[in-house]
Every structure is written in structure tokens, then in C-alpha cells.
């Protein structure tokens, strides 16, 4: 497994590739790019390993070494397409949380036409408390403002109905706290339902990691199915093929907007350094986009702006608990 750590420089983004050095060098060939440094990481963490135990015991794993590079200041961001649980554990144990943050959250831009919608959490924390959902709302709004340029994002709380009393106990309690905010850097839109995510009715959708992960994969699967159905319909006959030629450019743009590889990764918000988690089946294009996503996060100082937003809002806890978690593997 390979993990990367990146540092922006005057000459462009420089990347350190952590993984089996012999395999990486063989893949790069005789003339590797000058912007890439190879660092040997002989150990690997699989999806079957316990994330925390593996990160603690396998000091030579790529994601561990990359996380340490970020923690030591040798790199400004980490990009991993390995186990989500391992990336989260390495981030918590080495990069560490921002002071006062309850739990980090995986935030991903949902690939839908029109304006992007930020969904968090998508798998870092399966079970949440109300105060964690409140922090997620501020994290998402800060990201939306810093990276997407939305002046005052609309933030919705994912539930089973629009009424304030609908949903699980943590959702109902979080709704009450968010609705009572006298001043916030975002507009609280109240509860939103699943259909509001692709509808683009809000800029940020807040939920627990279990619901968010299922929702994201459902949306991605639906998008692929729709694109495939459109392609098959166009190829279904001579007239359809002629019509397809007439709308080819528009369908191409739609396919690009729905492609999950265009987004390529999720930010792990709430840490002292920048971590981007990509899909395990990512193509080379998706990995390149994930690196670009990390570079943009560094340029926009996502970590610093997020910390400032949480501090200004007064939603940071006085003391942080020990780092323990249940994450989507």
C-alpha cells in the first residue's frame, strides 16, 4: 500500500511516496519526476487489520510514516487510498486533533450537477453525540467558505423528516442547539432529508458517519447507474445513436459532473494537519485529483481557518478525551 505526503514549494507541489521502494522505483522507471521522493515503507496495513493496533505496531507502514511526516512538518498534507480506519488512526495518533475538537469528520463533495454539496461525516465516527454534530456543522461551514467560496453557507441536519422533533435523540438535540444559536457564520436550514442532498437545497449536510457513508455510496452507485442507462439508451438503435450525437457534448459534461473520481477524496477535518482519504479502487486520475485537492486545502489554509471558526463560535471543548474511535474500515 502506498501513501503520499505533499509539500507545496515555489517550483510546484513536491510529493513523498511512502511504500515498497523497489516496487515504486520500478513503476517510475529510470527517470522518475524530480518532484517525487521515494521513501521505503516495508510494512502494510490491510482492511482486515484492526486500525489502531496496526498503526501502533507497524511503524514502517506507509500511512504511519506519511502521518509522521505531516506531524513533523516535513509535509503539509497526507493523501491515502488505503484503509479509511488506518488513515483515521494514523491521523489521530500522529497528526492529532485540533485542541477542543471532539471528533474528526470525513467531509466529501457530493458529485452532483450544479453547485457542490458538502457531506460530513462520511465514515470517521459511526455513533455521534449532539455536540459532535454541532461541531461538524461549523467544520462544514468553515470548509465551504474557505475552499468553495460560499459567503454564508446553508447547513442542514440529515434526518427522517423536516420537523425539529424528527430523528434520533442526538439529531433532535443537535437541531435544538443549532436553532438556538444567536450568531453563526452559516445559515441553519433545519432538518433536511435524503432527497435534499442531490437537490442542492443546502451547501452542507451534517450527519453521523454510518448514515453519511451509506448515503454517499448510494449516491455514487445511483450516479453510475444513471450514466450507464443513458449510454445504453443512446446506443439502443439508429435513431437513438443519431440523437446521441446531437447531445454528445451535453451528456459528456453531465457524466463528468457525476463522476466520483472528479472529487477523488474526502478531507479528514478536525486534525492539526491536512489529511485526504481517497477510495481504495482509485484510478491514477483519481489519485492525481486527490493530490490536487490536498494542495488546494493547503493553499486555502483549511486547517487554520477551521480552527479559528470553531474558536470564534465557542464550540470547542475545554479538554479533549483520549483518542478512541469506531470508523468505517
Name its key features.
329 residues, alpha/beta, Isopropylmalate Dehydrogenase, 45% helix, globular, 13 helices
Tell me what you see in this structure:
- The protein is built from 13 helices and eleven strands.
- It has 329 residues and is of the alpha/beta class.
- The chain has a domain at 110-262 and 300-317: 3-Layer(aba) Sandwich (Isopropylmalate Dehydrogenase).
- It has an eleven-stranded mixed β-sheet with strand order 3-2-1-4-11-10-5-6-9-7-8, with helices on both faces.
- It is globular and about 60 Å long.
- Residues 320-325 have low confidence and may be disordered.
Strand tally is 11
Overall shape: globular
Strand content: 15-25%
Biggest β-sheet strands, sense, barrel = 11 strands, mixed
**Annotation field: number of helices:** 13
The CATH level-2 architecture of the domain at 110-262 and 300-317 is identified as 3-Layer(aba) Sandwich
Uncertain stretches:
320-325
Strand order of the largest sheet: 3-2-1-4-11-10-5-6-9-7-8
CATH class of the domain at 110-262 and 300-317: Alpha Beta
| Average of pLDDT | 81
Oligomeric state of the chains? Answer: single chain
Topology pattern, helix = H, strand = E: EEHEHHEHEEHEHEHEHHHHEEHH
Radius of gyration: 20 Å
Amino acid at each position: 500500500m502506498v501513501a503520499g505526503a505533499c509539500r507545496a514549494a515555489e517550483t510546484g507541489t513536491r510529493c513523498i511516496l511512502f511504500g515498497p521502494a523497489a516496487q515504486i522505483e520500478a513503476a517510475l522507471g529510470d527517470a522518475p519526476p524530480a518532484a517525487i521522493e521515494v521513501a521505503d515503507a516495508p510494512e502494510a496495513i490491510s482492511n482486515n487489520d484492526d486500525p489502531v493496533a496496526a498503526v501502533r505496531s507497524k511503524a514502517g507502514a506507509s500511512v504511519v510514516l506519511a502521518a509522521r511526516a505531516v506531524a513533523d512538518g516535513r509535509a503539509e498534507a497526507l493523501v491515502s487510498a488505503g484503509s479509511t480506519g488506518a488513515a483515521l488512526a494514523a491521523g489521530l495518533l500522529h497528526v492529532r486533533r485540533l485542541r477542543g475538537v471532539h471528533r474528526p469528520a470525513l467531509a466529501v463533495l457530493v458529485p452532483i450537477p450544479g453547485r457542490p454539496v458538502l457531506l460530513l461525516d462520511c465514515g470517521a465516527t459511526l455513533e455521534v453525540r449532539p455536540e459532535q454534530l454541532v461541531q461538524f456543522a461549523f467544520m462544514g461551514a468553515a470548509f465551504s467558505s474557505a475552499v468553495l467560496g460560499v459567503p454564508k453557507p446553508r447547513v442542514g441536519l440529515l434526518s427522517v423528516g423536516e420537523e425539529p422533533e424528527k430523528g434520533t435523540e442526538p439529531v433532535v438535540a443537535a437541531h435544538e442547539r443549532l436553532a438556538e444559536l444567536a450568531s453563526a457564520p452559516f445559515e441553519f436550514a433545519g432538518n433536511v432529508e435524503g432527497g435534499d442532498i442531490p437537490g442542492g437545497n443546502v451547501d452542507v449536510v451534517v450527519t453521523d458517519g454510518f448514515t453519511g457513508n451509506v448515503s454517499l455510496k448510494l449516491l455514487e452507485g445511483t450516479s453510475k447507474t444513471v450514466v450507464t442507462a443513458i449510454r445504453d439508451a443512446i446506443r439502443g438503435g439508429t435513431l437513438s445513436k443519431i440523437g446521441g450525437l446531437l447531445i454528445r457534448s451535453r451528456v459528456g459534461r453531465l457524466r463528468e459532473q457525476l463522476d466520483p473520481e472528479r472529487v477523488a477524496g474526502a478531507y479528514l477535518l478536525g486534525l492539526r494537519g491536512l489529511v485526504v482519504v481517497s477510495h481504495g479502487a482509485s484510478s491514477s486520475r483519481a489519485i492525481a485529483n486527490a493530490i490536487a485537492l490536498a494542495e488546494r486545502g493547503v493553499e486555502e489554509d483549511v486547517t487554520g481557518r477551521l480552527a479559528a471558526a470553531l474558536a470564534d463560535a465557542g464550540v470547542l471543548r475545554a479538554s479533549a478525551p483520549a483518542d478512541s474511535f469506531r470508523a468505517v474500515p
